[in-house]
Amino acid sequence: MTDRPDGADQAPDHDVPIPYRERISTYYQTLGYGAPYRWAHYAEVPFTPLKKPLAKSRIGLVTTAAPYQPDKGDQGPGAAYNGAAKFYKVYSGDIATDHDLRISHIGYDRAHTTATDSNSWFPLPLLREVAKSGRFGELSPRFHGAPTNRSQRVTLEQDCPELYARLAEDKVDAAVLVAV
User: Fold this and answer.
1) CB–CB of 125/131 below 8 Å?
2) pLDDT tens, 95-129?
């Protein structure tokens, strides 16, 4: 696209990204935390290149989706935020079976999106198909669930080491993190 001096190549002024970060900061202040939410960001982020080609690598799946709990209220697509459906400990599941995972416990923008495509939060069936195609070597025997309890300290000190240990136990070469 070329830049036109009349601005005809530009999107309309109202067509801007949703200011999620600003909304969340304001939300935390209205909850009485005083200071705005501090986003985790680091000057240096570790990167480890794959030790073997992707086509020969074992891939793990980590999701923030929660196992469906029938006694915890509406958790289906379009459900309102449901804090009762949250989970607070890392969990794992066998990739050979289908699982009913949901995202009603996540505070996502329900006005501008839907929760109808489960591949957007738990792409296990899709990854099974990709594995058969040879794009990567194989899936690890388990997938893992990462809690979203809004505590960076707990995530870094408790959940991440637990997830890492489980992925290492599964002899994973790389992991796909699907965070909602």
Assistant:
1) no
2) 999 999 999 998 877 877 778 889 988 999 999 99
Q: Say which residues have a Cβ less than 8 Å from residue 120's Cβ, sequence separation at least 6.
A: 178, 180
3-state secondary structure of 178: strand
Cα 58 from Cα 66, distance rounded (Å) = 24
> What's the token pair of residue 20?
């999620």
CA separation for the pair 93, 131 (Å, rounded): 18
Tokens in use for 170? Answer: 């599964």
* Residue count (the chain): 180
What one-character-per-residue DSSP string does 68-88 give? --GGG---STTPPP-GGG---
Note the pTM of the prediction, 2 decimals. Answer: 0.82
Model confidence pLDDT, tens digit, residues 23-66: 777 777 887 877 777 777 788 888 889 999 999 999 999 999 99
* Displacement of CA 104 from its chain's centroid (Å): 13
* Whether the Cβ atoms of residue 77 and residue 151 lie closer than 8 Å to each other: no
Task: Name every residue whose Cβ is closer than 8 Å to that of residue 107 and which is 6 or more positions away in sequence.
Answer: 81
Contact yes or no for 142/93 (Cβ under 8 A): yes
CA–CA gap between residue 90 and residue 102 (Å, rounded): 15
